Amino acid sequence: MANKLPKVPVVIVGMGWVGGIIAAELTKAGISVVGLERGKSRSTQDYYHVHDELRYASRYELMQDLSKETVTFRNTEKMRALPMRSYGSFLMGDGVGGAGVHWNGQSYRFLPYDFEIYTKTAERYGKNKIPQDMTIRDWGVTYDQLEPYFVKYEQMAGISGPAELPEHLGKMSKPFPTPPMKTTPAMKLFTDAATKLGLHPYIIPSANLSQDYTNPDGIERAVCQYCGFCERFGCEYGAKADPVVTVLPVAQKSGKFELRTYCNVTEIMHDGKKATGVKYVNTLTGQESVQPADVVVLAGYVFTNVRLLLMSKLGQPYDPKTQKGAVGRNYAYQTNGAGSSVYYEDREFNLAMGAGSLGSCLDDYNGDNFDHGDLKFLHGANIRFTQTGLRPIQYQPAPADGPRWGQAFKQATLHNANRILGISGQGASMPNRYHYLDLDPEYKDSLGLPLIRMTFDFLDHDRELVKFIASKTKEIADQMGGTKTTVNDTIKQYNIVPYQSTHNTGGTIMGADPDTSVVNSYLQMWDAENVFICGASNFPHNGGYNPTSTVGALAYRVAEGIEKYMNKGGSLV
């Protein structure tokens, strides 16, 4: 029998960036919060002297255990979905801090175009430019409305960035709180080449600190050491912003926050109109508990948020045949694969040193910053050179037509290790009526509950985008003075392997229409006013950027919304 606990004002499911930000903001306002995390607790001390590539990068120490819960995948409804049994396409975090612990730190604001993509596309090109099955829509909030929340996120995280960004990226009411990271020789080559082509490169905004920093909450963090152990690792210096070293300490010091680890939430309890709390299982003891609450916040990863709604029968599941329902619709990913490599026979670079968001980029071909009139795709890509720190186990730059083992292979990798610079495009992913998330009818997790099922594939417009962006990366690469350049300009069918991006979006999308969205602009659920859902699952499409800054901004906005709701009740829009 489930153990029923005393009622609390707010319960948050998931203690990553979203859960941490909301917990910090609500407890500062004097509101008591319980945070539930299915993984273990963490602190910076856990990462001291553990630059262990095999343990973390290859064996996924920080990731969700796929033997207990995973995702099933298919390209189309005609295929049978199969479980992802080993990590490949994306990496799902686990434990306090979630994916906010093992991220790289690249911190972009989505473009003004992204938030009003349907309106702005139709105004410039006409509605016929939008393919019939491409379900793009405005987000229900504009860039200008969200801009103050971007500032809150950047000041909290200590984002390091240029004093000014190109004007086509949207106005900033306040500059980044710390200067940009160092410019390496390789970054300078990229920047000089792009500038010669009339483009507008800039240093990537970074959650890896360029200098010591104290944020508005009094949290002190140290400067980045450029050790090259960011993605898939926790930062032993605390230089990379993550929930464990920024927002969670604020909540914990308030005296209003209770963190419960090893608590796997399995159901949102509700009466058909409002949530009454959540049910969870202690993963160590198997004890089931019910936590009543006035407000329930879903702050998990994309798949977690959608799966909980579907398992709880809260909201109407999306049906791709009728396009009715909203829970699970508009799943999107990232259209990667476009890129060029520059090889230098007579020059070497120190590519082992770096940081997760050390690099330069440009957005001349992102969003609608260029004319799409004669192109067969919408949106675009951020083009970048990054120097994230290339480690020896996973980086083996031997020629594809050469030997793959033995002495000759080792000699080739040693020779090439510091001679190849890669330029890549991170492309936007547009939603499609047949791309969605639902519950798998066959496969279950270790608790006997259905797994989430993903239906997704790359389409013609993705292939056209990759071909176009690849040609632009080659133009830059050719200007960088290498011995030779190579280009990749094709993608085929999407597969769950190899690793591509952890930027999954959609499934609980925001919008102004309750029939086609799950939450309003304050991320308050249309079907249950005391349920707030926040994360990349709110994105109606995925842009040409890493999603974290936009997720962080939304988290600050939803925290404000929850406080308003607790004071007044009712719908916030």
Question: Taking Cα atoms only, what radius of gyration do you get, to the nearest Å?
Answer: 23 Å
Low-confidence stretches: none
Counted up, domains total 1
* Strand count: 20
Shape: globular
Q: Give the biggest beta sheet.
A: 8 strands, mixed
Helix/strand-derived class?
alpha/beta
Strand content: 15-25%
**CATH C-level category:** Alpha Beta
CATH topology: FAD/NAD(P)-binding domain
Fourth CATH level, the homologous superfamily: FAD/NAD(P)-binding domain
Give the second-level CATH assignment, the architecture: 3-Layer(bba) Sandwich
Keywords: FAD, Flavoprotein, Oxidoreductase
Family: Belongs to the GMC oxidoreductase family.
Protein name: Gluconate 2-dehydrogenase alpha chain
GO molecular function, one term: oxidoreductase activity, acting on CH-OH group of donors
Summarize this structure as a short list of keywords or feature phrases.
alpha/beta, 6-stranded antiparallel sheet, 8-stranded mixed sheet, 573 residues, GMC_OxRtase_C, FAD/NAD(P)-binding domain, oxidoreductase activity, acting on CH-OH group of donors, FAD/NAD-bd_sf, 12 helices, 20 strands
How would the blueprint of this fold be written?
Elements (H helix, E strand, L loop, with lengths): L2 E2 L3 E6 L3 H12 L4 E4 L16 H6 L12 E4 L7 E2 L15 H4 L9 H4 L1 H9 L17 H15 L27 H12 L5 E2 L9 E2 L5 E2 L26 H6 L3 E4 L2 E8 L4 E8 L5 E11 L3 H11 L22 E9 L15 E4 L18 E6 L19 H11 L3 E8 L8 E9 L5 E6 L4 H19 L5 E5 L42 E3 L14 H21 L5
Parallel strand pairs: 1-12, 2-3, 2-12, 3-9, 4-18, 12-20
Antiparallel strand pairs: 4-5, 6-14, 7-8, 10-11, 11-12, 13-16, 13-19, 14-15, 15-16, 17-18
Helix pairs in contact: 1-12, 6-12
